[in-house]
Design a protein that fits this description.
The structure holds two protein chains of two kinds. Helix content of chain A is 68%, strand content 0%. By secondary structure, chain A is mainly α. Chain A has one domain. Chain B has a single domain, classed as Rossmann fold, CATH 3.40.50.1110. Helices cover 53% and strands 13% of the residues of chain B. Chain B contains twelve helices and seven strands. In chain B, strand 6, helix 10 and strand 7 form a beta-alpha-beta unit. In chain B, helix 9 packs parallel to helix 10. Classes of the chains: A mainly alpha, B alpha/beta. Chains A and B meet through helix 10, helix 11 and helix 14 of A and helix 1, helix 8, helix 9, helix 10 and helix 12 of B.
């Protein structure tokens, strides 16, 4: 009997995915004071880990049920349809990015930045650039998460099948792929040079971990995760990561990091999901599930409603957040980058994301569907739209 | 012992508030200027014994200024003038090997030639922007810097690394951070000074010393910024010489 996915949507997933979307928005505005408060400044991992893990969890939750009820072919077709939607969303964002960069290039004359103007070179050869973008090889800065998500979904049907038959084997295969990727340096090529900034062969481990947890893994390791030993280890590791990250912010502290430790630890490789980052995320997750149970009353409070709503419409809100971060940076440059303005832009951006999420929920409601409702089991529309 | 000394130097620098260079405009927070925690032994020997200082600036487009007369206003030419003033009895020569749109790897191809032709005791190596724009793998970038620094040191030159400029308008379009982090790692690993141009210029921008986001064709601000960079580089060289004198150590 394959493990049954839980029948109800875990609101904690929506909450933390919503928060991750806010953090991704804040982090993607360069030189934003508000982003000093985001988790990447206090530890090794950042919102990307949260987003990918929860996306894996939700994908298994939604398509796992579909695979059980309708079979491999139908579930795979839905997964690929979702990948297509994300591809279209990514291309839409790419067009917005092109519009911004083309605008900036026309008003960028400073002789100091002669070299930086090389970034506009690709506008001169749209024949190559556009095709490379369609192939997901040319990806502007901060537009790497959706291509990763597409790649992960493309590989998801066989993984999901195996997760339902042999969850432990599936997780072992995923970990082996991660290890082999590190050993052989596998990655997908990018244009004009280099590789993907989120290596799908490495990041798939986090996605698979999320999926594994959704299909019964979380229940199996629950007692282990809640044990005092794991709690202690997680706290110690988070404190260690915090101390190390502080030495990045205050260079005077850097001298206290022993040379051997620095040489062993650095560089902490985001591209290939460094094991230090993975461990940091797992420590955060262990502490979170211990102190926020699934029936935590706070999940029903009005205060957390905006974040939960954002998390429930993650693709739309993610795209909106990326657009708003472009727009926010644009405002800093063209109008003002005073601290007051940075706070205002950050707050306004999150407010717009919440309003959009509420609007999308409303649309779905008037169409007679209710993805946030806990009374209905996930249906086909949920599968198509909310993983 | 070395770590302890480095710790003491860094700590002292961190405690100080502001380090003013020659021109008050160039003042930067001390922790940004204190990149020079590593000695420059070959430079110290050349200055103390031969009274010469032959420098090559190896860089790409951000080591020069576009426009008429830009080269004379850029930091390599200014460095020559600043050094001649600071070390009046030393024969200083700054040769520039600067070409736009060059990646770090492309620059290393010219190292052998530069070493044999110019015989520098110091190579100031600026790189990173082009690599970031074209998306060179950050690991490959780090490996290139490592090899390049080793090559230069083996060829008898000390090295000072210079990282990218801070450019607010293109900040969301060029992923500078990964490359800046890797350059810092190489600087620490090879124990060579690093002029953290990115952090310094960002500090200038945030503190309002220089307005870096205006669209202007004028060279005025750019020239003042390059003048400051030259002075800060001269500080790095001065500190490197001083450290070498204070703690003589065989040249590797």
């Amino acid at each position: 009997m394959p493990p049954a996915p839980p029948a109800q949507r875990d609101l904690r997933l929506d909450l933390f995915r919503g928060l991750a979307l806010w953090l991704i928005f804040l982090d993607h505005i360069p030189s934003n004071v508000v982003s000093w408060g985001t988790i990447r400044n206090f530890g090794f991992s950042d919102a990307a880990e949260i987003f990918i893990f929860i996306s894996g969890y939700t994908a298994a939750f939604v398509y796992g049920r579909a695979m059980q009820e309708r079979g491999f072919i139908v579930a795979s077709a839905r997964i690929l349809k979702r990948a297509w939607q994300i591809y279209v969303a990514h291309m839409f964002l790419f067009v917005i990015y092109m519009a911004e960069i083309a605008y900036v290039s026309s008003s960028f004359e400073n002789p100091l930045y002669h070299e930086e103007m090389g970034i506009f070179d690709f506008l001169k050869q749209p024949d190559v650039t556009l095709i490379q973008a369609l192939l997901l090889k040319f990806k502007p800065v901060n537009m790497d998460v959706l291509p990763l998500y597409i790649a992960l979904l493309l590989g998801f049907p066989p993984l999901l099948w195996l997760l339902q038959k042999q969850p432990t084997v599936a997780l072992a295969v995923s970990a082996a792929l991660y290890a082999l990727t590190w050993h052989f340096g596998w990655n997908l090529p990018a244009y004009p040079t280099g590789y993907w900034w989120f290596n799908p062969f490495a990041w798939q481990l986090l996605f698979a971990l999320g999926a594994w947890c959704a299909l019964g893994g979380a229940q199996r390791i629950g007692p282990f995760i809640r044990s005092p030993v794991i709690l202690g280890a997680a706290i110690v590791y988070l404190l260690f990561a915090f101390a190390i990250v502080m030495t990045w912010h205050f260079s005077a502290l850097a001298a206290y990091v022993p040379k051997w430790l620095g040489e062993a630890m650095y560089p902490i490789d985001k591209i290939n999901l460094d094991v230090l980052r993975l461990a940091h995320f797992l420590a955060l997750a262990a502490i979170t599930v211990r102190f926020i149970p699934v029936d935590w009353p706070g999940l029903q409070s009005l205060w957390l409603r905006p974040a939960i709503l954002c998390g429930q419409h993650s693709l739309e809100i993610f795209c909106l957040g990326i657009f708003l971060s472009f727009a926010g940076h644009f405002v800093f440059n063209e109008i003002s980058d005073a601290v007051f303005m940075q706070i205002l832009v950050s707050a306004l951006g999150i407010a717009i994301m919440c309003a959009a999420a509420a609007l999308i929920s409303w649309y779905k409601r008037i169409e007679g569907r209710s993805p946030g409702s806990r009374s209905k089991p996930p249906d086909a529309d949920l599968a198509g739209g909310e993983a | 012992m070395r770590e302890l000394t480095a710790a003491a130097v860094t700590l002292m620098a961190g405690l100080g508030t502001v380090l003013a260079a020659e021109s008050p405009d160039c003042a930067v927070a001390a922790h940004l200027a204190a990149a020079s925690e590593y000695p420059l032994p070959r430079v110290a020997v050349a200055v103390d014994r031969a009274r010469t200082l032959d420098i090559v600036v190896m860089g790409a487009g951000s080591s020069t200024l576009a426009g008429p007369g830009g080269t004379d206003l850029a930091y390599p030419a200014r460095l020559q003038i600043v050094l001649s003033k600071r070390f009046p009895d030393v024969k200083t020569k700054v040769v520039t090997n600067v070409k736009s749109r060059r990646s770090a790897a492309e620059m290393t191809e010219g190292f052998e030639k530069v070493l044999t032709e110019e015989k520098p005791v110091l190579v100031i190596w600026q790189s990173g922007t082009v690599d970031a724009i074209t998306g060179v793998d950050p690991d490959d970038y780090r490996a290139t810097l490592e090899e390049g620094v080793q090559l230069l040191q083996a060829g008898g030159a000390d090295v000072v690394l210079v990282n990218m400029q801070y450019s607010p308008r293109t900040e969301s379009m060029i992923a500078i951070q990964a490359y800046a982090d890797n350059m810092r790692l190489v600087a620490q690993h090879r124990e060579v000074p690093l002029l953290d141009r990115f952090a310094i210029m960002r500090h200038w921008s945030e503190s309002g010393t220089f307005d870096l986001s205006t669209a202007t064709r004028k060279l005025e601000t750019a020239a003042r910024i390059h003048d400051c960079l030259a002075q800060l580089l001269a500080d790095v060289i001065r500190d490197g010489i001083k450290l070498s004198r204070d703690q003589p150590k065989p040249i590797q």
